[in-house]
Amino acid sequence: MSKERGTRRRAPRSEHAFKAACFGAAVAMAAPAAAFKIDTGSPDLELTFDTTVRYNAAMRTGERDLRLVNSPAVDEGNWLFGKHDTALSRFDIYSEFDLSYKRNMGLRLSASGWYDNNFPDRSRSDPRFATAPNYARNEFTSYIDRYYKGPSAEFMDAFAWTNLDFGGTSLNLKAGRFAWLPGEFLFGNGGSASYSMAPNDGRKSDLSPGASAKETALPIGQVGATWQLNNAWSLMGQYTGEFRSSRISEGGTFWQVNDTALEGPQYISNPAVPRAPSFKGDKGDVALGLKWSPEKLEGDAFGLWLRRFDDKNPSWLSQIAVNPNGSRIGRAVYAKDIELIGLTYNTLLAGWGTGVELNYRRKMPLNVRSGFAFGTFPGLVNDPGMEGPRGNTVHFLMSAVSTINKNALFDSGSIALQFDAMHLDKITSGASLYNGQGGNPACTDNLVLRGCSTRDAASIALSFTPTWQQVFPSIDISAPLFVTYGLSGNAAAVNAGVTPKGSWLVRPGIRVEYLAGKYKHQFDLAYTARGGKTGNIVTGPGAAPFFASGLANFRDRNYLSFTYQTAF
Amino acid sequence: MNIRRIATAALCLGIGASFVPAASADDGERLPWGALKAGSKDGSIAAWDGGLPANTSPPGFKKDSGFWADPYAADKPLYTVTAANMAQYADKLSEATKELLKRYPTFRLDVYPTRRPANYSAWFVENTRKNAAGRCKAIENGEAVTGCFGGTPFPVPKTGEEAMWNMMLVNKGSSSWTYGQAWYVDGGGNKVMTGEVNNRNQNDYFNQKLTAEEFYAKGGQYFMNNNIYTAPARITGEGNLQRKFINPVQQPDKTWAYTPGQRRVRLSPDASYDFPVATAAGAMLYDEIYAFSGRLDRFDWKLAGTKEMLIPYNNYKYLAGKPDDILMKGHPNPDAMRWELHRVTVVDATLKPGARHVAAKRRFYMDEDIPGAVVIDAWDATGKLSRGILNPTVWAYDKQAVVQGGTFYFDFGTGAWYNSSILGGYKGLFMDIDTVDADAFYSPEGLARRTQR
User: Is residue B414 part of a domain?
Assistant: First the structure.
């Protein structure tokens, strides 16, 4: 551990010991009850309880690149951990309880818990910006303490469901908190018809790399239905009864560039711009889907979706307004009432399980420029909603999965691809706030490098996993590789799931699966490297500051991660 | 047909054929499904005596309980084959069986009197006769069949492909619920449970509510399969769906998978031929599901006569066995197994030039009464015996159909072996106990309705 760490204030040792003991007790309480199926005496009633436990560790291997740390808004995340520091040492537990009667109705409850004893109590600023930490006095707030350190826990799924048959049709109805993400995406659903149908826990993806979709798709209170009318036609519907935000990595942590985001930091700029509570979305999202799978097409399925929804992601992270007394305040604003019409198609193409999606969104939030404040900026509407720009956008994605049979190099393999593209049709409001051509006057050249949006953008993601079975008795080894690469442009819509041009992520790994009885012990070791366009742009006489776009902002935060998980 | 010439040809293939198919089934010598009615000359194989009546009810039998009591429980082994005396029975053992005997001193074959329980229903026999009378034809170079329905497609197969279709269309009833556990034993003897499944299977080829015409009009769906995993904890709530068609050239297999958390169903990529089933420790390939259920196009299939073989048969004890009764290092517990001498049809499969598959050569031994009672040897490209399959069989007397719980798969490279569905200790197999709206049930929505994770 480096010297830097020693300067951080730590909670008294005894407190940690107590918390660790509590967490251990929670795990121990879960363990004897592991994976039980209660013999209820009735073959119709089934009760199931399963628990997954996971340990994640990560070590930063990249040397800090001070060119990336050029303002108080981007220093704390980079400074929190230095090269060779342990950036993560986290236990996760996820328990699931299912009750079903005749497999036709039931209840489901799930909960997750976590604890990272290693997570610091204080954020760390670059000495150059020590007077302006985004966390007051560099003390992490209680939100950060809860979600990054713990030990803490929360309920996830909590819903009731039933299957009803009538008039030759079958209806599946769910009510309560759950996530439902239809569509044809494999990696990210930014371009999918299911965008924002459920909030996404991107933070857990960062902090708990082995987490499954059950843990990273956040449940939202809703009624959801799939009504199979006949062999070829099904109707689907969603109505949400609450609003919940997606979670992103918080400012000042290793996983976030922007120190100002979102629930943790008190300051967008310390002390001039404190962060106020977000303007969030509302309940009342509506989704209607129609699926057509004619017998003649042998399993191919077409879907049509019509939706009206509020963005679950913080559309505009840091909107700033000037109060009548001249003081400033900033907040995240979530775009409401986005409209979407989407088509989905699922088929087998030369043996590849293939999905295609095309959707058109009205009033989609667009990337907002920084450096303005509502109420002062000449020419800007003093919008009490503090909205950023919106526009009509077109999103396309294509995904495909294939298997590879035994060959000279490995026993079996799988390969998965996703291509995402988006197009800005037109800006419908807030054009002057748009961080792209027509909005931000700086967006004239080096668009991607400056972070300016472009009309069109496209990127690709790929995973490839060769597997060797029974390398040793009951030990399978595989080598998952994940790559993303930005092909062109910089997406105009926020959270569109398109990586900016030239940005890349490469994550090679080794997975060892050891099976014993009913248990599988899975060990993952992975190395993550990211990069993208960088360069100097002449901005004035004698001024040519360094710019880094997209994932280039993480170019110095390469890390090695280790995950162990098992379920019982 | 010149019997001597065919016999000679078969000997040249190294099979040692002792029986030769007659020209047609059901000719007095043969039963409608093609098996010889008579026993063997030395009496070791009994003549077919009508099989087990449909009202058979051995002590302990409870209809639709998931299991079948052993009607032959009083039988005592006639003799035991071990590594020490296997040479004496060499021509009656598959190469994989020999390999197991050679490798593991703990392995043996308890050979019981040959019992021929098969007693197909009048509906099956009538359809088998119609199939034999010419309505049933192999098409697409033998890769598909047409016209066949409701019975053995080719009671007297004339090609290897026809024999393979007899095996793939064995009468396991028209629908079943199966609650079993998949286990493997690794090369070191560790036991691993990789899947506990709640399965419903439907085979409209044996759906008595359909006519042959209706079966083909609906696409010839002889295999519809809906799986929900109930254990181990890491996969509970996952599910998948398969549909196979009787003309796989025109209508390729389709598989869908359910993703927990996102709660959606998506078409899976083709996994076929020698793609290893992930949960089977490399011992089972995709085209070996249910012993063999793959495409025929990559191999040349040669009918190589008939012979007498020691194969697992009337495995009532095995079917009721719990995992601990069955699983041993290297091989199934011989105490749980019953072996009998039966006449089998031999099919040799050779990889076509330019085609690829980890098994360059495979040999199938299929029972004359129950073609699904099959034993398989497989060799790799170097000519080394690499894999073996044993498919234990039970005659479900009350259903007049075959029950196959799990199949045994052996990987001689790693010493690992796998059983796809051990029923004992779990709920068992329920045949033809209900009907579902198949189009709705075996659909992506039907799959999603069965799991809520």
Answer: yes
Whether B263 and A180 lie within 8 Å, measured CB to CB: yes
Q: How far B280 CA lies from chain A's nearest CA (Å)?
A: 9
Nearest-Å Rg of the Cα atoms of chain A is 24
Of B233, B271, B416, the CB nearest to A470: B416
**Closest CA–CA distance from residue B187 to any residue of chain A (Å):** 5
Are A348 and B254 within 8 A, CB to CB? yes
> Is B153 a domain residue?
yes
Least CB–CB distance from B236: residue in A48, A347, A401? A48
* B321 found inside a domain: yes
H-assigned helices in A107-176: 142-144
Reported confidence tier of residue B25, pLDDT bands at 50, 70, 90:
low
Q: What is the DSSP letter of B269?
A: P
What pTM, to 2 d.p., does this model score?
Answer: 0.92
Which pLDDT tens digit goes with each residue over A59-79? 999 999 999 999 999 999 999
- DSSP letters, B98-145, are HHHHHH-TT--EEEPPP-------HHHHHHHHHIIIII-EEEGGGTEE
Phi, psi of A180 (to 5 degrees): -140, 115
Which residue range is the domain that position B406 belongs to? Answer: 51-449
- ipTM for the assembly: 0.90
Inform me whether the pLDDT recorded for A24 exceeds 80.
no
Q: What percent of chain B has a predicted confidence (pLDDT) above 70?
A: 94
Interface test with B, best of A518, A521, A564 (most B CBs within 10 A): A518
| Rounded (5°) CA angle A358-A362-A367 | 95
Return the amino acid letter for B212. A
Residues of chain B found within 8 Å of residue A178, distances taken between Cβ atoms = 263
How far apart CA A311 and CA A361 sit, in angstroms, is: 12
Contact B294, B429 (CB under 8 A): no
Residue B297 amino acid letter: D
Task: Report DSSP letters for B36-89, one per residue.
Answer: BSS--TTSSSPPP-S-S-TT---TT--TTSS----TTTT---SEEE-TTTGGGG
Quote the CA–CA distance of B418 and B389 in Å, as a whole number.
Answer: 10
Task: Specify the length of chain A in residues.
Answer: 568
| CB proximity list for A353: less than 8 A, separation 6 or greater | A346, A400, A401, A402, B266, B267, B268, B269
Q: Provide φ and ψ at A235, rounded to 5°.
A: -110, 140
In a domain, B16, yes or no: no
* Contact partners, residue A142, CB within 8 Å, separation at least 6: none
Residues of B in contact with A402 (CB under 8 A): 269-270
Residues B277/B281/B285/B291 CA torsion (nearest 10 deg): -110
A511: helix, coil or strand? strand
Nearest residue on chain A to B190, alpha-carbon basis: A516
Distance from the B33 Cα atom to the nearest Cα atom in chain A, whole angstroms? 33
Q: What is the C-alpha to C-alpha distance for residues A206 and A218, in angstroms, rounded to an integer?
A: 15
Please enumerate, as own/partner, the contacts of B78-84 that have beta carbons within 8 Å and a separation of 24 or more. Answer: B78/B111, B78/B112, B78/B113, B79/B111, B80/B108, B80/B109, B80/B110, B80/B111, B81/B108, B81/B109, B81/B111, B81/B310, B81/B339, B82/B108, B82/B109, B83/B107
The domain total for chain B is 1
With beta carbons under 8 A apart, name residues in chain B contacting A101. none
CB contact under 8 A, B445 and A51: no
Q: Is the pLDDT of residue B4 over 80?
A: no
Q: Any idea what the CATH number is for the domain that residue B221 is in?
A: 2.50.20.10
